[in-house]
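hi support,

uploading two proteins for the ticket. first:
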Amino acid sequence: MRFNWKLLVSIGVFALCIAPTLVSYAPYSFRWDDSDYLWRSVAVSNAFWSGNAHDMRTAMVSFRPPVMTLLGLPWGPLASWDAAGKCFITLTAFTAFFVACCLFLLLRIGLKPLYLAIASVCVFAALGPYPAGGDAHFWAAAFVADSLFAWNAFAAMLLIPYEATNPTSSTTDALVRGILWAVIFSVGAITKVSFLYFIVLTIPILFVVSIRHSGVRSALLSLISLTICSFPVALYWLRYGQPVLSYGRAASFGPTAHFYYVPLSQFLGDTVRQSPGILLSAIFAIVSAAYLIVRRRDVAWGTNVLPLLSMLGYCAISLASSNREIRFLLPGIIGLPFLIGILISGKTPTFPRGPATIAAILVFCCLVAAAVPMSHRPNRQSIAISETVLAQAAESNAKRVLLATDSSTLNYPLMKVAIAVSPSRPPVEIIGLAWRTGPIEDDFRDIRESDLVVFQDEPDVPFTNKRMAEYEQYTRQHFGDVAIKVVDGIRIYGMSHN
């Protein structure tokens, strides 16, 4: 094979453009979702390495899929804040694996080097660190599942043109193809509930395309391989999936979503203002659409248009939700430029499997190497207030601490993180009153039964603190007006059980 320097350059551009969207060395402050992921990762790792199956299951199973709880497992028991920071490396390595998968699939599909480079630049412009302070880059490099989900979803979409351009030629190939499907769909299913969209939409299309290009026998073998390899994840969903589905529905189109409502026009305006590089993808899409209309109308009836339409459908559903955040659109921001490039590339020679595998492995290794210093990203100030509360709990010999307010600097997950990384692992039970909508008498009972009750001045989330005034009034009535400690904007009341 003749040396293709253009393709080599485009692969280099891909690596250089994608790396800054995933890798960041800026100090990272944990808040809500990310602190929940961190304490569960620490708890699962400690339970696994100590052989405590009950505690491991308790930490893994929640209203979110469990993949983020597994990030601490490679590092053994995590007994300190510095050790917990290693979870950043695991998350980036996990995401890098799917970045490498996507590169492999793109090369095997036959994406032209020029469009590989252009699409990579579009992703960098949208999710890179410039301009500083943009939400898009923050979420792309944050300790949340969204980047992993985005690259995973993109890999699922690439399976369709990959199947069309690389038919299986033997039983072994068909079984291995099914294993590839299982890895992508299984990991996606335990990453975010939104991935169910891609599972429901992609697998039937994939099966039909496989029948068309590889034959019924190969398609069935791949489907059987997929089914067998995905069985453990299917069992998880059958056993623990209902709370995840209920929360996903509530957070997207249910009552929880309305708390985060942002008008569509305001959301789009804020997104463009904070991350103007997204406009580059829009320009590329408009120019490509014009080219296709004028020169290549035939592609509208080809297989390669299906993943593009599927990704556009996902983006439309995300924008239709009341809960609009740029992180929910990461699959589209990442995938659409490449899918457009595939569409306008037409029928081009595919890159051989061996060199494509080597290129993907090299990119994966480079991303993982770049991620190693990320273990120092976690900012310990994230749990400073929580540690103050724990210190007071130790001084008061308190066993039950109740958080009467909720904020980005003091909340239930942050308290759990502080306990998990504390050298003494204090046996303190944490209870939170955030999000409660039941009878307030039940909340008053929890206040009476707690040893310490903690309030914070002006918490930054009004809708989770609607009962703050009633809680504090009742707390003062129960054990006096004077807090036993007032520091860093928090008031700690001690409960008497004489």
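and the second one:
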Amino acid sequence: MPKEDKQTALAKLDAHVEAVTQQQIAEKAYEVMGAIKALNSLTENLGAQVMRALMRFRDEKLYENYGYGRFDDYLDKHPTSPMSYATFNRREKLLESEGDDIYNLLESIQVPMTTRKALPPDSFEVRDNVLIVADDKGKEYEVPLTDTKRIKNIINNIAREHRDAKKKLTDETKKTEALTNRIKELSESKPASSELSTPHGEALLFVITALQNLIDKANDLSDAEVIEARGNAMELIGAKMSELHQAYRFDIQHPGKVKSRKAAKEPEVADADIVAALGQ
């Protein structure tokens, strides 16, 4: 065979192989998308099989056979796309964290994505047709898979508690940061800087920080916990307030004056009244 004919034959063979390959890829794309549509039509929810098929559709770039250069463009713009790209991303993260079985279960009982995202990691386990759900504190709830109403109630409660705990932690962190910044401002300000840099000033900042922390914790107590805790707490604080008055030689009847050290050590009715009031 002449050299030119041989090259022509090889070129035709390459073109044929390329055409066959492209046809096979296109057929695979249509097959995968057809399976996704069929699965999606059998249920109102987007189960794990649909998501796995879409992930394959993305990974093998089968969307290119529909005229799109990017997967996100296909999902957002194709008229028969099963979901938006943003929804796909959220669902993929849930599928990877929950696993196929849990994902399918929560989809079937229509637990919202926002609730599932609010749950602690590794919250679920299935054993012998029983769903085991764990909360933030490690407490486990065992519910038959058939009891979907109770499953939803438990999941909603755990998600709410987890959100509240995260918000509380965030709020406490913000308060701590604000207090730290305020202390920093005080320590760097003039003329307060010289006062706060003394042992007395350092002790004062320590007490302010500790009291703010105590206030934050007290605000978090329930009514029953407040009743149990406040009597002892106020008694201890009241006693220290009395000692503080003596140390500062404070005269409650004449706030602008300073008592002598000897007079400051003598108990007064005014200080006793303050202690009693704090203890109530």
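thanks. also noticed: The radius of gyration is 35 Å.
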